[in-house]
Every structure is written in structure tokens, then in C-alpha cells.
Design a protein that fits this description.
Number of helices of chain B: 5
Oligomer: heterodimer
Shape of chain A: elongated
Helix content of chain A: 55-70%
Shape of chain B: rod-shaped
CATH topology of the largest domain in chain A: Arc Repressor Mutant, subunit A
CATH superfamily of the largest domain in chain A: Winged helix-like DNA-binding domain superfamily/Winged helix DNA-binding domain
CATH class of the largest domain in chain A: Mainly Alpha
Strand content of chain B: under 5%
Order of helices and strands of chain A: HHHHEEHHHHH
Distance between the termini of chain B: 72 Å
Strand order of the largest sheet of chain A: 1-2
Number of strands of chain B: 0
Structural class of chain B: mainly alpha
Helix content of chain B: over 70%
Structural class of chain A: mainly alpha
Radius of gyration of chain B: 23 Å
Largest sheet of chain A: 2 strands, antiparallel
Number of domains of chain A: 2
Strand content of chain A: under 5%
CATH architecture of the largest domain in chain A: Orthogonal Bundle
Distance between the termini of chain A: 44 Å
Number of strands of chain A: 2
Largest interface: A-B, 58 and 48 residues
Chain lengths: 196, 88
């Protein structure tokens, strides 16, 4: 069966899909300039490979999958330019632990996580716009070193093994990265009075 | 005594293991320690629930676009892309 958009000539792709792809990219990289470059690279790559496109998926789906890979490339490049994950985790270990755990007391949570949680309407609420605004904000606040792995895990649905390979990190470092990112995110949501 | 204290009070290890257990299976001894700690620790119990809710939100966040939140690509960008495509 032919897909709705497969009749479009490649020349028409930009007008048909640039808005969608740009909007997809900007919520994931948080920089207008970078999102624009990524979208442009996506179209260039798609044009080069237009011959290999098979009409099993729609053009939109196909372009989106190229875009996702470009986003991961972007994050990978970014993290290669800076410190290694190993060094980063070592250097920030003490300040992370001091912020959240009581070292004199076997590592108990410093501040109790005791707000009442998961009301009946949670499902509706966490999908609401208000919640997403705060979530975006908290995601933006994540240290840039923690973010790439997070994006790879959730956006591409990649498993631990593959992410470790892509970012060249050990699995124990992967768990620590995830743990810290989630702890920070959770605490940011709580500070914004979201107790979920 | 140290072992018991560690078991009861080490939220840091427990919460790290909670994160791990979402994606992979833990060795039995580690899993038991985690479960035991959670049974006595309200904070880690809440952490466990919250991290699962956050998971759900993030899945959604990275997969869906709210149609009415779409940020349009600028005309300048579209023009630039088209020009570059013609150069190919």
C-alpha cells in the first residue's frame, strides 16, 4: 500500500516537513541554531539517499529516523569535545553526594522524600501542558554532561548496551549517569512543587 | 551492626539499584537487599514510585509532539536548505 506522502517529489519535502522536523529538533537540543543545522543536515542526507528510500514507511517517518540519528551524533560530538565521563563523574561525586545524601549516616536521603505521591489523577496530570512546561525547564537545567545519555535512552529507545557503546562508557558509569540525572530531575520537579 | 545499619540506612545504594533494576536484572543478593531496604524506608519507596512516573513522562516527552506547540521553521532556513540542495 502506498503511503499518503510518498507521492511527494523530494523537492517538495522541505515545504512539507521542515516545520515538523524543526519543531521535533528544537525540543530536544534547546538551541535554535543547532536545531537548524541538524534539520539542514537531515535534508541533505535524505536527498543523497533518496534512491534508497523504500516506500515501506512514509517519508515523514523516514526523515524523522534520520533526524534522530543526527541528534544523537550532535550529542556524541558535543560530549567528545569535553572531559571524559570517567573524570566528570569522579570530579562531581562529592558535590552530588553532599547535596542529596547524608554521609555521616550510611547514605540516607538528606531531605525526606515523603510528599504524598501518585494521586488518582496522576496520569492525566503528567500528560498535561502545565506539567510539561516544568519538565522542559528541569530538563534544561540538567548538567550538559548528563543529558546526552538521557536523550539517547528515551528518544531512541536504545538499550543500555548500545548506549554504552555509542558513548564509549562502562555500564557502571551508565547507571551512575542515569541515577544522577534522575535524582536531579526528581528534585527539580519537587522544588517546583510537583509531587506527582 | 555495621551491616544492619548499612542495610537499613543506605538510601544511596538502594536508589541506584532501583534505577538499575528498571532496565536490567540484579543479582539475587543485591535485589534482596534492595527489597528489604525499601520495605523499611518510606523515602526509597517514594523514590521508586517517582522514578517510574518520571520514566513514563520522559517516554512520552521524547516521542510525542504536541501539535499546537509546534515551533515553525523560519523561512530563511527553508530557503537556505533549498539552495544547498540545489548545489548538490
Amino acid at each position: 500500500m502506498k503511503n499518503n506522502d510518498s507521492g511527494l517529489a523530494p523537492e517538495q519535502w522541505v515545504d512539507a516537513f521542515a516545520d515538523f522536523l524543526f519543531s521535533f529538533a528544537i525540543t530536544r537540543v534547546n538551541s535554535r541554531e543547532d536545531a537548524e543545522d541538524i534539520v539542514q543536515d537531515t535534508f541533505l542526507a535524505a536527498f543523497k539517499n533518496a534512491g534508497t528510500f523504500e516506500e515501506r514507511s512514509s517519508v515523514k517517518t523516514w526523515l524523522t529516523s534520520i533526524l534522530k540519528n543526527k541528534i544523537i551524533d550532535y550529542y556524541r560530538k558535543k560530549s567528545q569535545n569535553s572531559k571524559s565521563y570517567e573524570d566528570y563523574l569522579d570530579e562531581t561525586e562529592a558535590s552530588f553526594e553532599n547535596a542529596f545524601f547524608n554521609q555521616n549516616h550510611f547514605g540516607r536521603w538528606k531531605n525526606d522524600i515523603d510528599k504524598n505521591y501518585l494521586s488518582e489523577s496522576t496520569d492525566d496530570y503528567i500528560l498535561s501542558k502545565e506539567f510539561y512546561k516544568i519538565m522542559e525547564l528541569c530538563l534544561q537545567k540538567l548538567p550538559s554532561k548528563l543529558k546526552p545519555v538521557f536523550v539517547a535512552k528515551y528518544m531512541l529507545d536504545e538499550d543500555a548496551e548500545k548506549i554504552c557503546k555509542e558513548f564509549n562508557i562502562t555500564s557502571s558509569n551508565y547507571w551512575v549517569l542515569l541515577f544522577r540525572a534522575k535524582t536531579l530531575l526528581r528534585s527539580c520537579l519537587e522544588k517546583n512543587e510537583i509531587t506527582l | 551492626m555495621k551491616f544492619i545499619n548499612n542495610l537499613l540506612h543506605n538510601c544511596e545504594d538502594t536508589s541506584l539499584n532501583i534505577i538499575k533494576s528498571e532496565e536490567t536484572s540484579l543479582p539475587v543478593s543485591v535485589w534482596l537487599k534492595m527489597k528489604f531496604h525499601i520495605a523499611f524506608c518510606k523515602c526509597c519507596r517514594n523514590f521508586n514510585k517517582q522514578t517510574k512516573a518520571i520514566d513514563k513522562v520522559l517516554q512520552h516527552h521524547f516521542h510525542e509532539n504536541f501539535p499546537d506547540q509546534e515551533t515553525k521553521a523560519s523561512d530563511a532556513l527553508k530557503k537556505r536548505i533549498k539552495e544547498n540542495l540545489q548545489k548538490m
